[in-house]
Amino acid sequence: MTIMAEAQIELIEGCRVPVLLSNGDGWHWAEILSKKDINGKPLYYIHFDDFNKRLDEWVPEERMDVTKAELPKKDAKTPKKEPQASKMTNGSRPASPELPNGASTSVLLPIGGISPAPSPIPGGGGGMGGGMTGGLNKKNNNLLNRKRKLEEDTDSQEGQFAPRQTGSMVAHHDDVVTRMKNVELIEIGRWRIKPWYFSPYPQELTNNPILYLCEYCLKYLKSNKCLERHLAKCLHRHPPGNEIYRKNNISFFEIDGRKNKAYAQNLCLLAKLFLDHKTLYYDTDPFLFYVMCEYDNRGYHMVGFFSKEKESSEDYNVACILTLPPYQRKGYGKLLIEFSYELSKVECKTGSPEKPLSDLGLLSYRSYWSQTIMEILLKMKPTEQGEQPSITINEISEKTSIKKEDVVSTLQHLNLINYYKGQYIITMNTEQVDSHERAMSKRIIRIDPKCLHWQGKDWSRRGKW
Fold this sequence. Notes:
The protein is of the alpha+beta class. It is 23% helix and 22% strand. It has helices at 138-148, 176-179, 203-206, 224-233, 261-272, 332-346, 359-378, 393-400, 404-413, 430-442; strands at residues 16-20, 27-38, 41-48, 57-60, 107-111, 185-188, 191-193, 210-213, 220-221, 242-247, 250-256, 287-296, 299-309, 316-318, 320-323, 352-353, 417-420, 423-428. It has a five-stranded antiparallel β-sheet, sandwiched between helices. A four-stranded antiparallel β-sheet has the order 1-2-3-4, with no helix packed on it. The longest helix has 20 residues, at 359-378. It is globular.
């Protein structure tokens, strides 16, 4: 009688193995991305299946069920593509929404001036930010080429370190390097923050346990001593540029990516630590950055920011938006979004964020759109003749500066817009109204348009940005 011992699979990059979650709540399959030895014991950098990359981590072998490990699968050959049919396939036109059965309505608003088949943008907006084809004029082509141009600005870091020309600085490469977090901790002001994603900081600095940042000019340094020396001679106590809004302890600064290139590049590097779906470019000239700060007697401390293109052929009013982790879940994300739409109102334009949105960005925008549109609808009153109030999609868009496609998609996401007896109507039940009122009661901080001192520029008429 022969006893065959079960051979244990050697854990290498690409292997899949069940890993015990950090909170001890069961096992989840994960892929091994890298391996290293610490004091003779192996550690594995793993990515959990169907989880966001910010949850990736280094784990010891004790948290793995090695007996169920799977070897890496060989890459399958790419199948030949079938020639695409020239006809439009089914599903290219959105179906008309149906009135829900037995819906209890407390508000009934006829909506006029809307075509029977609007083309709503899906809530997530996937795939809209990756490249443009077709009838682009020469000016737009030059703009896109300018965005993709890589310029190394070593002067911004006094010649000490230069960011790497690899990974997300160049393109959306999903290689092993960019899939792994390369910074353990950052220290900025009074916060020490654990990054979520890869950012192409110089490798000489990412090998250190902590990356130190000046909270005023965002310069990156290798040690606390270097940071102390820098702060002693740093002239900034607020972001460069013009302060265009101040109320209580909240301020907004407008930074031109051409005039303040070093700050803009450092801001993008910091943002990349918490944004995975954006590509960074060295050429910040085509962008404006709006930085929100909290003010105290020590200076202005960055809370978050958003950027926008000086000229956007797609009417985007936000290119990238971020609230730093210590300030999240405090209403600052909606404040940034609200401020971006206040700028659009001053410009007399409707705007929309650049797609695709991150998971957290999508939640914030859906919440803001829902609350803003519900606020408009609930303030409407019956006419003098006692008829129910009516409003058009165009009127909602003009009042809020939210693009029509986003208005329609939000109404559909909330199941408010329905087609009934030849016209579109909005139906709201008491539960939706109560939920909206509870949400609005939590929005303590709001943008006051009277405190905004800003005038938009027509960048298309300017010879140079």
